[in-house]
Structures are given as C-alpha cells and as structure tokens.
Amino acid sequence: MKYINEYRDADLTQKLLADLQRTVTRPWTLMEVCGGQTHSIIRSG
User: Fold this and answer.
1) pLDDT for res 22
2) Which sign, positive or negative, has the C-alpha torsion 26, 6, 8, 12?
3) Which pLDDT tens digits describe the chain residue by residue (45 residues)?
4) According to DSSP H, which parts of 1-45 are helical?
5) What is the residue extent of each domain of the chain?
6) Element (H, E) at 29
7) Spatial separation of the C-alpha atoms in residues 23 and 20, rounded to whole Å
8) Which end of the chain is more exposed for a tag (fewer CB within 10 A), N or C?
C-alpha cells in the first residue's frame, strides 16, 4: 500500500501522543462505529 510506512512511524506516533496529552484537559469517551479501525490499530500498532 502506498504510504503505509508513514502510518507505522513510531517517532511520529510518540509526537502525536505528546501533542494530545498537552491538549486534552479532561477524559474523552470515544464511540466506535465499526471494528475495522480497531483491527488495523491492533494489527499494525
């Protein structure tokens, strides 16, 4: 798949996580509509 390595970049993931931790001021509740994204995250990390 084109660009697949961009989605497996651990350094980028850590940066995005740090950005979220600075931005979020209270707990979030996320609703999952379909399991496709969850399976992709678990499979790819």
Assistant:
1) 95
2) negative
3) 567 777 778 898 899 999 999 999 999 888 777 878 788 877 876
4) 10-23, 36-44
5) 4-44
6) none
7) 5
8) N
